[in-house]
Specification:
The protein is mainly α and about 120 residues long. About 35% of the residues lie in helices and about 0% in strands. It is built from four helices and no strands.
Amino acid sequence: MQAGVVATQKAFTKAFAANPDAASIQPGTYNLLLEMKASDAVVALLDPASRATMKLTIAEGLTAKQIAAKITEITLIPTEEVAAALADPRSSGCPRRPAVRSRGGCSRRRTTSSRARPR
């Protein structure tokens, strides 16, 4: 409604209830027309071709600043929002980074023998 895709929430809710496949609509961003019939909007949301997708490849060796610029360039998300998300990933819905655990022998040092050397 707010985006002008369908006329009313009631019409969309009715069309959603009438379509047996509607429960399989996935969260995401979709490319939809303006002023669609509610039933057509439901069908469009079920069509994988309607999903808006972007591909972003982060090359090895880029700095955080370069990565942020690339994200802004591809997604059109404002620089400030990208910087805030990078500063606090959890605030953007990113999962908590798992703790890195070391195994007992990962930091072994090479030792020399304490045996006396022959003369």
